[in-house]
């Protein structure tokens, strides 16, 4: 297996606190990798570092063999690494359909010069984008709401909309920040099934932060465990489950080491 | 004939409303569509007006060419303003835009040799030589009058509103394109837009520049309409008039701007007919301030009962 994402000794501090402290790990292409750890372990900071929303003070991040640790977020997304946020970033005063359409890639109609100089191409791209957006909305059973303002959707539907939007962006690596938080179990199951199917059918790689360890153990091939900004363990779910450091991180060490 | 029934008076109100439509449409593009808090819109109006006037008087440039330069320079100024400031948080950006417009106004006031200073455009050619920049415009207006068989006021009204409505139509069309969709997504949540591969900074810069161009066009019509102006015409209050218009009409839609501008213009001009008690106790200068109070009250009332503006969407306002 080759690594699609390589994180090497990445450091990011806020004030005196090293939120991410020389964290290193790989994400294998085609894998479903979970990133777990207690609150404050640095998972969200790490997501922001990888997706370009924060810049690392030290260390490197490579995606498909190219450095992305000094690349702005939109360029990282354009290269095929797309993230979601813990709280869905629903574009509330736009239609559900527009929320998905806006994620279309390589759309000449999104540039002012493209609108004028490549009008025909822009129109054709818009047509294919609309077809794909309709497919995705149907897949997530949001097609009934296509014309509604996205602001009327429920919390769970917003999670689905975020997911549909990410897929519209044609990613090869998807970063999901707590995809199951605030989602009812039935919907959660559906999301897991979507992830499994997309990995098999489209060869997508997933890296996700999740607190529900049952889901982590069930859905992931590999687990990375963080604590206090460091990666303290990684391996298959079974390996990680038996690791004493992981147990300590979650339960606290008994007595002095 | 009394003022209230005179065509001359109301056509003046209409012309000013047309100019303000162009001016406030810039704010609508910047704030209503891209979410940019530009409190310095008046600077672009000033740049358009001054560039045109200076080039005509000092360089003897063709009026249309000079007007084109005014718009181009405003766009350039918008880009220069945006490059260092658009990465700032929204509130900091807002403060820098006020500073920008005030700096330009002070420069215009003090750079006598370039702008005529506080005496305004009459002093453009230097002391003792009364200058005038709108000769070519007046003769063009005369031609329009003769060809359309209308009065001078009517010709100006037609010209301003033709340009204003064309601009409204164009903005409206642009917002329906995928480009407009990206702009709105930035207004809604710029991190989300960036996470989906959109170059937020570039789009903001474009919105700022388009708004600047519209402000400059408004400034050029303003200069032609009044045949004279000075730096005081570009005080921050004028920017806030544009904001009032956008809020009155409704955010996020292009065609609400001319409606807002007309309502604003009618309130603004209409208060001069407040010659009954208690207003008759005030002299005319004092009464001029009453209109600002009235507009303030209208906006407060609107925020209370119709926060979406006259034609905005209530549904959009309550979405979280």
Overall pLDDT level of chain B: 91
What overall form of chain B do the CA principal axes indicate?
globular
β-strand number of chain B: 0
Class based on secondary structure composition and strand pairing of chain A: alpha/beta
Quickly name the level 1 CATH class of the largest domain in chain A: Alpha Beta
Count the helices of chain A. How many? 10
Q: Can you tell me the number of structural domains of chain A? A: 2
Overall CATH architecture of the largest domain in chain A: 3-Layer(aba) Sandwich
- Oligomerization: heterodimer
Can you put this structure into words, describing what you see?
The complex is a heterodimer of chains A (257) and B (320). Chain A folds into 2 domains: 3-90 and 170-251, Rossmann fold (3-Layer(aba) Sandwich); 93-152, no CATH class. Chain A is built from 10 helices and 10 strands. Chain A has helices at 43-50, 73-79, 96-101, 112-117, 119-139, 155-168, 185-202, 213-219, 237-241, 244-251, and strands spanning 3-14, 17-28, 32-36, 58-63, 66-67, 81-83, 173-177, 205-209, 222-227, 230-235. In chain A, the strands form 2 sheets. Chain A has a 6-stranded mixed beta sheet with strand order 6-7-8-3-9-10, with helices on both faces. In chain A, strands 2-1-4-5 form a 4-stranded antiparallel beta sheet, covered by helices on one side. In chain A, helix 5 (119-139) crosses helix 6. The two termini of chain A are 37 Å apart. With 320 residues, chain B is mainly alpha-helical. Chain B is 72% helix and 0% strand. The model of chain B has no long low-confidence stretch (mean pLDDT 91). The A-B interface holds A 51, 53, 72-75, 77-78, 82-85, 89-94, 98, 101-105, 107, 109-112, 115, 122, 126, 129, 149, 151-152, 165-166, 169 and B 174, 177-179, 181-182, 184-185, 187-189, 191-200, 206, 252, 315-316, 319-320.
């Amino acid at each position: 297996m080759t690594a699609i994402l390589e994180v090497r000794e990445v450091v990011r501090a806020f004030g005196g606190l090293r939120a991410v402290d020389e964290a290193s790990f790989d994400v294998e292409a085609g894998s479903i990798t979970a990133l777990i750890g207690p609150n404050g372990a640095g998972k969200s900071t790490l997501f922001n570092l990888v997706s370009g929303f924060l810049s690392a003070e030290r260390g490197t991040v490579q995606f498909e063999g190219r450095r992305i640790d000094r690349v702005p977020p939109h360029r990282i997304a354009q290269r095929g690494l797309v993230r979601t946020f813990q709280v869905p970033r629903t574009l509330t005063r736009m239609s559900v359909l527009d929320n998905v359409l806006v994620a279309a890639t390589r759309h000449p109609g999104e540039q002012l010069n493209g609108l004028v100089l490549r009008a025909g191409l822009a129109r054709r791209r818009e047509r294919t984008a609309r077809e794909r957006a309709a497919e995705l909305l149907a897949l997530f059973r949001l097609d009934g709401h296509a014309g509604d303002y996205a602001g009327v959707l429920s919390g769970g539907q917003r999670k689905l909309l975020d997911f549909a939007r990410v897929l519209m962006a044609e990613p090869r690596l998807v970063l999901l920040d707590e995809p199951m938080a605030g989602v009812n179990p039935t919907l959660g199951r559906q999301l897991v099934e979507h992830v499994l199917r997309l990995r098999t059918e489209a060869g997508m790689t997933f890296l996700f932060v999740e607190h529900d360890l049952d889901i982590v153990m069930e859905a992931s091939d590999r687990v990375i465990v963080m604590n206090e900004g460091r990666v303290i363990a990684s391996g298959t779910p079974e390996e990680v489950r038996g690791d004493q450091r992981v147990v300590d991180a979650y339960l606290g060490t008994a007595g002095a080491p | 004939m009394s003022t209230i029934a005179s065509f001359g008076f109301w056509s003046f109100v209409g012309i000013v409303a047309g100019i303000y439509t162009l001016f406030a449409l810039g704010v609508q593009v910047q704030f209503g569509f891209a979410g940019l808090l530009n409190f310095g819109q008046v600077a672009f109006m000033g740049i358009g007006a001054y560039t045109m006037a200076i080039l005509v008087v000092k360089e003897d440039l063709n009026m249309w060419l000079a007007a084109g330069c005014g718009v181009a320079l405003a766009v350039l100024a918008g880009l220069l303003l945006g490059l260092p400031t658009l990465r700032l948080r929204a509130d900091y950006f807002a403060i820098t835009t006020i500073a920008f417009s005030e700096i330009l106004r002070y420069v215009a006031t003090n750079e006598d040799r370039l702008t005529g200073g506080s005496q305004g455009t009459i002093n453009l050619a230097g002391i003792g030589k009364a200058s005038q920049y709108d000769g070519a415009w007046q003769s063009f207006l005369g031609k329009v009058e003769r060809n359309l068989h209308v009065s001078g006021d009517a010709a100006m009204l037609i010209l301003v509103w033709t340009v204003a409505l064309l601009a409204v139509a164009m903005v409206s069309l642009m917002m329906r394109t995928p480009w407009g969709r990206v702009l709105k997504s930035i207004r809604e949540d710029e991190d989300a837009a960036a996470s989906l591969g959109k170059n937020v900074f570039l789009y903001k810069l474009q919105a700022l520049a388009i708004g600047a161009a519209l402000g400059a066009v408004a400034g050029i019509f303003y200069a032609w309409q009044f045949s004279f102006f000075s730096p005081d015409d570009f005080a921050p209050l004028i920017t806030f008039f544009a904001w009032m218009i956008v809020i009155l009409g409704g955010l996020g839609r292009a065609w609400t701007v001319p409606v807002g501008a007309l309502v604003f213009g009618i309130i603004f001009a209409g208060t001069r007919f407040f010659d009954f008690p208690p207003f008759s106790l005030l002299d005319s200068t004092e009464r001029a301030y009453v209109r600002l109070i009235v507009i303030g009250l209208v906006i407060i009332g609107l925020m209370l009962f119709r926060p979406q503006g006259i034609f905005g969407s209530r549904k959009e306002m309550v979405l979280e």
